[in-house]
From TrEMBL:
It is an enzyme of class 3 (hydrolase). This is Eukaryotic aspartyl protease family protein. The gene is 25488909. It holds the Pfam family TAXi_N. GO terms for molecular function: aspartic-type endopeptidase activity. Gene3D superfamilies: Acid Proteases. The active site is at 116, 337. Residues 98-454 form the Peptidase A1 domain. Coiled coil: none annotated.
Amino acid sequence: MVLKLLLILIFLVIHFFTLEAISDFAVRDLTRIQTLHRRVIEKKNQNSISRIQKTKEQSNKSYKPPAVAAPPEYLTGNYSTQLMATLESGVSFGSGEYFIDVFIGTPPKHFSLILDTGSDLNWIQCVPCYACFDQNGPYYDPKDSTSFKNISCHDSRCQLVSSPDPPQPCKAEENQTCPYFYWYGDSSNTTGDFALETFRVNLTKPNGKSVFKIVENVMFGCGHWNKGLFRGASGLLGLGRGPLSFASQLQNLYGHSFSYCLVDRNSNSSVSSKLLFGENKKLLSNPNLNFTSFVGGLENTFYYVEIKSIIVGGEVLKIPKETWNLNEDGSGGTIIDSGTTLTYFAGPAYEIIQEAFMEKIKGYSIVESFAPLKLCYNVSGIEEMELPEFGILFSDGAVWDFPVENYFIQIESDDVVCLAILGTPKSALSIIGNYQQQNFQILYDGKKSRLGYAPMKCDEV
């Protein structure tokens, strides 16, 4: 099966990018993939509960886990069970991520945070900033906020974060703060004080009216030492599966699900992507909504799904099953991630996928020198082009089919289109990135442990 598109339609539908921008996205993506892999293998960001549990297993002594922090308080009283926030693409900052505006502190001050389903901790750069990256606007100063509260190292909530190495002793006679360290990779990490603060999110009700919603006592990191690939942002808003994430902290208010719909990157700047907390009844009634199950335990930050194979041009490819395995040591597997731009498959799978596309795309010359993209075609002077269909077959039988503009990309100023999928040569981890998620409404259903996806014109949501 093929998708027949006039060349003029390809130029209107397939997204334009400069080769420089794509190269930058890919470098950042591959760094992220390798460090995500290392985080799992090396058990980075392991909280104190996990460390104490390990000690318990080794010493066989009795152990009483700390009480998990109470959920944040909602201050406006009669709250809705469904609230929608707006997201902005980071393309103007040279970033492949999506950003959310958050107003933090009392009085509230504006900060732009990266939205990340691949991590848990919410954090911002804080004064005094001993080692910080450049951001748009001033750093957050806890002294300017009457709602800022440090978490003591004696507080049970302090055990939810990983402490710096070597750990600092918590002295009984002192009101000592809770230090944290969160690691994203060799070049990306944040260190500071674990604290509580009031977050105000610019949300949009279903009727389209904009309103600020206030959440009190949000656990977050006040980062005094921060470095890494956080271009244009003041920090990060985590939406992972762990108890520290913003999504998890809002579960008492809006339930165990959230969803987003990412507009394509060539959309008018006045059009915003949407993030919705709470049950989305309209989406659940959509006949085009499909589900696949999450795999792995709730102790994982990442949202793992289990792939059985890939479909190219109607053919289910013969990819060895072990290519997709989530191994006992945490390596391998496939995650869906908002913080990675392109889609990446484990090396052995990618080679088979690339070969399938090459076999099914006939009559167009392959062009090189468009690294990091590997499979590119010259479409100069071609009036009609045929491109194979592409989909993911999950182990539970679900299928996710994609429109051509989600897996092919056009190089700006060149009559060249390229496959927007790459391999991960040094990692068995596969990632479904945000480029492939564009114009789909993506549902993270924590209660039923499943991922939902439905094709959608996100600029109309």
